[in-house]
Write a structure and sequence with these properties.
Bound molecules: flavin-adenine dinucleotide
CATH architecture of the largest domain: 3-Layer(bba) Sandwich
Strand order of the largest sheet: 8-7-17-18-19-16-20
CATH topology of the largest domain: FAD/NAD(P)-binding domain
Number of helices: 15
Low-confidence stretches: none
CATH class of the largest domain: Alpha Beta
Largest sheet: 7 strands, mixed
Mean pLDDT: 97
Shape: globular
Structural class: alpha/beta
Strand content: 15-25%
Length: 441
Amino acid sequence: MGTEVAVVGAGFSGLAAALALARAGVRTRVLEARDRVGGRVLTRWLADGTQLDLGAQWVGPTQDRVNGLLARYGIATFPSAAHGASPVIFPDGRHAGAPEAAARVLDLLDAYAERVDPVAPWAGAEAAEWDRTTLAGWLRTAAPDPATARYLGRLLAGGLLAAGPDEISVLQLAFYLRSGGGSRALLAMAGGAQQDRIVGGPPVLAEALAAALGPDAVRLSTPVRAIAQDRTGVVVHTDTDRVEADAVVVAVPPTLAGRIRYDPPLPPLRDALTQRMPMGSAIKVHAVYPEPFWRADGRSGVAFCLAGPVTETVDNSIPASPRGVLTAFSYGPEANALRRMPPQARQASLLDALAAVVGPAARRPEEFVEYDWSADEWTRGCFCGAPTLGSWCGYGPELRQPVGRVHWAGTETATRWAGYLDGAIEAGERAAAEILARTGG
Ligand SMILES: Cc1cc2nc3c(=O)[nH]c(=O)nc-3n(C[C@H](O)[C@H](O)[C@H](O)COP(=O)(O)OP(=O)(O)OC[C@H]3O[C@@H](n4cnc5c(N)ncnc54)[C@H](O)[C@@H]3O)c2cc1C
């Protein structure tokens, strides 16, 4: 009998790992807690066929892995909508351009990113200092004025990592910029990570990957509770079953990997890492209107807000539907404040924020759809997990280091486009390659 590998999690990372192993002739069994594949992607359809992507939604240039898979399975994309002005909205309600000095500070951060090794961010000469410096603290001296500091704090900590600028280190940000190819690649719509959307939504690709694995390769509604290993193999325990294998790929965010029981227990530094990579905190809501009325006023619906519960809005209407979809993102402390509100007050606060972007008609959507990934047992936050202050240097080397027969995947372990669908695929393929290298596959 040949090698057999169990994969925990049927997100893009677990599916990519399983496919790479299956292609090399390795028998795989994917165990997925939810009753669906795809993980942090979820598309909901309104009765008239309007597509609402509640999780990941964009792909862009240089994301070669995800774009390659879309091409392989014949799944089309369409450009994100942005017709008209895309202002920054200041706390006094003024619509204007981004603070002028922001570009210079971004250049400086991009230069920092160039000095980070995406495989070993903890290893650089400045790593320790950057790892203990918060983005907010750094901006207090690097940005020439408070408005620029506020703008960049919300843009970078919020927009990229769904956190507050007090919560992330300069090293984590520099790593993230490096991993995605620089601030412009990460932040731009056209030419950047927000360029395109997927016809049918990202779950279509996850379902294509699962189908390529063949029937019965993925077991849904099967949370993995424990992983035991010894000299001869691993045993993966679910609520009802035990799966024996030669190795296991754990393709879930580190914080969820820490909720699985291990026998023998994880080494101290690896377990400590799982305690120090909390998920980001984002709330993504969709307000749906009979049409994208803001376009008639010359507004794109794309805006960046310097105050209030919403940091970013985008026009998420799709070409195939006449309806207008405005999507708002709230991050970090602002998202947490929203969670503390009763649902009606939360909705009113979010619609007020949309009204500040496109006018009072925003307060009367036909549909209002929110999804909070922090409330989801099998994700517990988004967009991804990130090391807390000091943790890259303290525990980074444990991130991808296998523990015996247990290998680690998930977008958090990627070196390129970490935090994204593309990074999830890289990570899965890398974990598969580790196993193949060790089994001579
Ligand atoms: C709101 C939002 C917006 C985003 N926007 C974008 C975007 O526009 N573009 C982009 O590229 N990325 C985006 N992302 C990030 C992207 O979704 C993730 O990087 C990617 O989906 C991560 O894939 P993964 O396989 O590493 O992890 P996951 O998708 O989290 O997969 C892990 C899987 O493991 C399962 N699981 C967890 N614990 C267990 C267990 N104990 N036993 C069995 N199964 C378990 C989970 O159910 C899940 O299916 C976004 C994410 C969110 C939530």
